[in-house]
Amino acid sequence: MNLTHDPQARSWLASANQPGCDFPIQNLPFAVALRKGAQENARGMVAIGDQAIDLAQLAMAGAAAGFSGLAGEALLAASGSTLNALMAMGPKAWSALRLGLFNALKAGSPAQAAVQPCLIPLADLAYRLPAQVADYTDFYASVHHARSVGKLFRPDNPLTPNYQWVPIAYHGRSSSLQLDGYAFRRPRGQILPPGASAPVFSACKRLDYEFELGVFLGQGNVQGEPIPIDQTEEQAFGMVLLNDWSARDIQSWEYVPLGPFLAKNFCTTISPWIVTLEALEPYRQPWSRPASDPQPLPYLEDRSVRERGAIDIQLETWLQTEAMAKAGKAADRIATSNFNHCYWSIFQMIAHHTVGGCNFQPGDLIGTGTQSGPTQAEAGSLLELSEGGKTPLTLPNGETRTFLQDGDTLILKAFCEKPGAARIGFGQCAGTVLPALG
Amino acid sequence: MNLTHDPQARSWLASANQPGCDFPIQNLPFAVALRKGAQENARGMVAIGDQAIDLAQLAMAGAAAGFSGLAGEALLAASGSTLNALMAMGPKAWSALRLGLFNALKAGSPAQAAVQPCLIPLADLAYRLPAQVADYTDFYASVHHARSVGKLFRPDNPLTPNYQWVPIAYHGRSSSLQLDGYAFRRPRGQILPPGASAPVFSACKRLDYEFELGVFLGQGNVQGEPIPIDQTEEQAFGMVLLNDWSARDIQSWEYVPLGPFLAKNFCTTISPWIVTLEALEPYRQPWSRPASDPQPLPYLEDRSVRERGAIDIQLETWLQTEAMAKAGKAADRIATSNFNHCYWSIFQMIAHHTVGGCNFQPGDLIGTGTQSGPTQAEAGSLLELSEGGKTPLTLPNGETRTFLQDGDTLILKAFCEKPGAARIGFGQCAGTVLPALG
Fold first, then answer.
1. Which residues of B touch A353 (CB under 8 A)?
2. Fewer CB within 10 Å of terminal CB in chain A, N or C?
């Protein structure tokens, strides 16, 4: 077993050893941030307990903290204002840096004195996007989501004939990527009122969230040279929470024939901490699909995917309305699911994306598509939870929701947890709806 | 009239005054390039006749060449290895730089001695992408293309009900943007053979080109703050030729419900020289659509668009097969059309793109969609020219084509030309098909 997965390992930082902590010594996720209000460049950070290690400051401590060779190179690459350089170094470097951090943070480490001055409380951080995302792609990899949404958009043809063969995806908009905590205006656009033959220009009336995970890519590939499925694992740097905010009424009018556009490109939010694929290792699971379904074509078929292509990540959706916030009430949990229901693994997504010759660059982002589970209570969107707006959710304070209202804050959370392994948390990805322009 | 549009203006550089020259003193398009084989950074260039002005070298000559104030700032911004900084400065700066260059290049200019050492023959240039394109969007703005392609993909429903209301678009892939002269591998992917119920993995058998124009964006907008239609003109820096290479068989299998993905993302090529919107000014025309068609919603309606939203750009498609190249035969012209047939103006595209809050950044690229004219001979793709592969084109050497074969070089050319105005050329955008991976 990789040392860094030892569930018994403890840090000299007490907050990292608390039960339920998202960021124990076995996690070590990466972000880019700076101290709130500071006049300094943002730089790479690693979370531990309720603190973050300022990697730029740690790089200056360098050898005293035990970093040299590849781990030292990787630490330097991670101290810039984006993590693209670290992502470009590949899995050996990621692993060496992670091990160096683990050793420096574990109880009794001689590096403690050198690391201690590099700590900043998480509460003091202002986050930035962790990478310059040149291209962002969004998949559609949950068959449960595809089937239930398909039923609403295309009652006669809920699951398109290609769905079980092709990991369906579309290109997203990277300019409007934002972080946890962002508040965005309700979009406006063309909507076709029920029964009308001409559209109207209106604020979106069916504003929704989509619970997705995001994957940050590593080294990438040369244009024209696909990444074989058995090399895809080396390409996944780590994962974040991703909310693909969606304007359902704009979407249903615009999406034929070229797919969603304004319905999705006004805002996409991600969580600031990238949980590395290596940290998720203890939660890898076999990937399979019903024997009655078509099995993957050879370019999407791989022993490693079969044996451990799925990842056991528990997903929770929380909602806090404006009325709740004003009354001092915390958010309510409105749905739970698990990423291991996903119909296509992230490795199949990477292989498919490049098989025609398309190239990834370090820091590119993939969304997995809405992660809905097999039951309606496990849905990853309000469209599904409210059955297309027909069955409102009733919240504990008596308010009801079919779609999001102005002032609503929608929060995605996720974590891995099971006996015999350390908890690996993702933190959260929240976003708040502001009223549309007048 | 803007001085730089004077059709009588002549340059001290004789090649710029030749009839038929793409780059007379009234054009002054921008590119990024370096001398072939040189150990230097790429930098901004402006074409004049058969030469380019090295803007980095000109910036060092600075005042001697007559540049100061805003024109000097813009010249400095254009001397870097991308034009993003120039694009971010906005139309006053673009115009000042253009006027400075015009004055320095016109016959009798006292700046001639300072400019002369900055000239490099076009034949000696190695081009780079003119901007770092953060996001690339592709529209579908030719109704003639939409109708004839729609007929092939959806015989019952060629023009979708939204088409005349929504400037349909999808997000494209910026990582695989390439320049004129690029040779790319024929993509492979999933294809559904006729009559089959399961797909096969195969090299694309219906490889096509799409003749589009590209628009490079200027300053952009803040997320959540749309660009009003009457301000869109200030956002268009300039235009290039764009070939949206398309794998028709991959596309027809994958594109429902989220749009084309692998069918398009293996390669998109553009011409290296960006013709500024200002240079195209004499070719602006009224924009209209049949009175029997729905007229644009107010956010897409504007007096300036009505009066001069269309642009009279003549389009020519040329094909040189491998056999022709081996026999020393030049390319044959297989189609011609005009950009003024476009159903949506580029200004409406910009307004629509941002109306929901999506943000543009300087250097973002918009494709106009395939520019097909009203008759089949004016089609902008082989799919249309060959009626879905049913009617092969016969070339003068006796070869036939439904779709592109390995070794084919497809060349887009465009120019503006009319009595009383100088010719404004775009140069060309060629690409060559290499065999698929084995």
1. 262
2. C
pLDDT band for A101, please (50, 70, 90 cuts). very high
pLDDT band at B77 (very low <50, low <70, confident <90, very high): very high
| Pairing outcome for strands A51-54 and A43-48 | antiparallel
Same domain, A174 and A116: no
- The three-state secondary structure class of A399 is coil
Q: Which of B144, B145, B341, B352 is catalytic?
A: B145
CATH number at residue A117: 2.30.30.230
Please answer yes or no on whether B135 and A267 come within 8 Å at the CB atom. Answer: no
For residue A171, the chain B residues in CB contact (below 8 A) are 170-173, 261, 265
Task: Give, for B2, the enclosing helix (H) or strand (E).
Answer: none
- With contacts defined as CB-CB under 8 Å, which chain A residues touch B176? 223, 357-359
- Six token digits for residue B339: 């950009």
Query: What is the overall mean pLDDT for chain A?
Result: 97
Contact A340, A313 (CB under 8 A): yes
> Cα-flanking dihedrals φ and ψ of residue A131, to 5°?
-145, 155
- For this structure, is B145 an active site residue? yes
Q: How many CB atoms lie within 10 A of CB B378?
A: 22
How far apart are the C-alpha atoms of A335 and A148, rounded to whole Å?
Answer: 16
Residues B265, B266, B270, B272: is their CA dihedral positive or negative? positive
The CATH number assigned to the domain holding A337 equals 3.90.850.10
Do B166 and A253 make contact, defined as CB atoms within 8 angstroms?
yes
Q: Is the model's pLDDT at A154 over the cut of 90? A: no
Sequence-ordered list of residues with C-beta below 8 angstroms from that of B399, at least 6 positions apart, any chain:
B321, B323, B324
Residues B287 and B400 in one domain: yes
Q: What is the pTM of this model?
A: 0.98
Q: Which residue of A has its CA nearest to B266?
A: A358
B224 vs A358: CB contact, 8 Å cut-off? no
Domain count, chain A: 2
If asked whether residues B267 and B208 sit together in one domain, one would say yes
Of A108, A128, A148, the one marking the end of a domain is: A128
Shortest CA gap A437–chain B (Å): 9
pLDDT in tens, A342-367: 999 999 999 999 999 999 999 999 99
Please give the single-letter amino acid code of residue B150.
G
* B358 and A188 Cβ atoms separated by less than 8 Å: no
Residues of A with catalytic roles: 145
Q: How many CB pairs under 8 A join A and B?
A: 199
Subunit contact B359:A160, Cβ cutoff 8 A: no
The predicted-structure confidence for B198-248, as pLDDT tens digits, reads as follows 999 999 999 999 999 999 999 999 999 999 999 999 999 999 999 999 999
